[in-house]
Design goal:
This protein has two domains: 41 residues, GTP Cyclohydrolase I, Chain A, domain 1, CATH 1.10.286; 130 residues, 2-Layer Sandwich (GTP Cyclohydrolase I, domain 2), CATH 3.30.1130.10. Helix content is 41%, strand content 26%. The protein is built from eight helices and seven strands; from the N terminus they run αααββββαβαβαβαα. The strands form two sheets. Strands 5-2-3-6-7 form a five-stranded mixed sheet, with helices on both faces. It has a two-stranded antiparallel sheet with strand order 1-4. The longest helix has 16 residues. Zinc ion (ZN) binds next to loops. Its EC number is 3.5.4.16.
Length: 188
């Protein structure tokens, strides 16, 4: 798998340390540029993944009712400030034609989409649209709740505030009761 450009990140981090008035040569900071490069390799590895790939794992199963995987933890990086936002993703779908995907694949898709510079809204809709494109389900509902460090440790400084986004596709769009069922199961 290709990776981030470690050398470039190391140079950039050294420049940032200099720019903030630090000494990149003091003992505690000597390995910091290398560490940050390794960290970015990890937290941005979703840039080299396609969430749709995971939904290619399908099983024939005669189940057309709700499948919900909830409380999938995720960590992402706000694309405006490059600081973390993190929370939980809940993914529900109504399979069509006996086509269900592996449960872990829902969590793997969350990893692929969140491990990039992101916006919460885009994570939500990308997961929903990837499922629509690959699984052709009767409906998909994705709900994401997150805390944004750029709103807590800096800027407006509102720790504890949560952002909730949802993306609703197919049968869920018209069916209030089906949406309500998912929301009540998420809350349990
Ligand atoms: N819609 C959306 N906005 C986000 C997300 N993450 C961070 N933001 C917002 O992006 C906005 C960037 O606003 P700017 O005015 O360009 O930047 P800023 O001066 O650093 O803004 P403040 O955070 O208000 O200090 C802020 O309002 C952030 O809260 C996200 O996932 N979705
Ligand atoms: Zn931000």
């Amino acid at each position: 798998m290709s990776s981030v450009d470690h050398e470039k990140i190391e140079q950039a981090v050294t420049m940032i340390l200099e720019a903030i008035g630090e000494d990149p040569n003091r003992e505690g900071l000597l390995d910091t540029p290398k560490r940050v490069a390794r960290m970015y390799d990890e937290v941005f590895q979703g840039l080299r993944q396609d969430p749709k790939e995971h939904f290619k794992t399908v099983f024939g199963e005669d189940h057309e009712e709700l499948v919900l995987v909830k409380d999938i933890p995720f960590y992402s990086m706000c694309e405006h400030h490059l600081v973390p936002f993190f929370g939980k993703a809940h993914i529900g779908y109504l399979p069509r034609g006996g086509k269900v995907t592996g449960l872990s694949k829902l969590a793997r898709a969350v990893e692929a989409v969140t491990r990039r510079p992101q916006l919460q809204e885009r994570i939500t809709s990308t997961i929903a649209d990837s499922m629509v494109d690959t699984l052709d389900p009767r409906g998909v509902m994705v709900v994401i709740e997150a805390e944004h460090m750029c709103m807590t440790m800096r800027g407006v400084r509102k720790p504890g505030s949560k952002t909730v986004t949802s993306a609703v596709r197919g049968a869920f769009e018209k069916n209030d009761a089906a949406r309500a069922e998912v929301l009540s199961l998420i809350k349990e």
